[in-house]
Amino acid sequence: PTANRGHMVLKRLENLLKMFYDAEVEIAISKNCNDYYQEEYDRVSRMSDARICYFDHGKALRASDNWIYTVEMAHGNYVVFVSDEDDVIIEALEHYLALLSQYPEASLIRARTKFQCADIKERLYKKKGLEAFSTEFLHQNYLSGLIVRREDFVQENFRKLNQFSDNYFFACYAHEWWCAILSKKGDYIEDPVTLISENESLLAEEVEKSKKQGIEFKEGAEGLVEGSRLPTYATYEARLKQFRGYIDFIHYFM
After folding, report:
1. Which of 162, 176, 199, 202 is the most buried (most CB within 10 A)?
2. Cα four-point dihedral sign 115, 76, 96, 174
3. Considering the entire predicted model, what is its pTM?
4. Is the backbone of residue 214 left (phi > 0), alpha (psi -120 to 50) or beta?
5. Which residues does 113 contact at the CB level (< 8 Å), separation at least 6?
């Protein structure tokens, strides 16, 4: 999924197209928004590599809907989410392809990342249901490196959760809801082999660019606290709102 970051998509592809895999791996790119870097997106759309599956919505979407669409447009049995800020460690793909083949009952796999999920030190395997849920819940604050079994994900039609758009936990972490629900569909794995190398967040740069162009962030959109590099969703007040949303979610989920 990508929004207003065509230059970043080109950087990601520079890395991904080094893969020696052909039919085993597909790169699904869903383009959201039309404000910046259109020339770079045009370059992506013209790439002739058969592994690239690219779609331009031609409009702005809810961010979570764009993530969902990447899964829907893909054709594989499993999908790994990757932010347009982050790189896949190509050498780790062989390990994860073997892992998915070894554990066909898994619906949800959390791969280690270099920074955000660096605390994963050993493999955990939890059976579907409350065992999987109690292990994975609130462990998915970072989307890159999250692997889902595509059939389970698509069957759930997660856009129905948009009815909870006034829940601040959902607004910030819709994927936590997806993962909790998927824990009922199949087993859960955490694996210590690093799959994702995170790059520095572009949020500060994007907020500044928007200000210069007179573009205001909509209410509920991710921004920065005035005079700091702290994201608005990470303030003390925002976390309290999220905690209240956790409780509402638990009631819904249970």
Report:
1. 176
2. positive
3. 0.90
4. left
5. 86, 142, 144, 145, 194, 195, 196, 197, 198
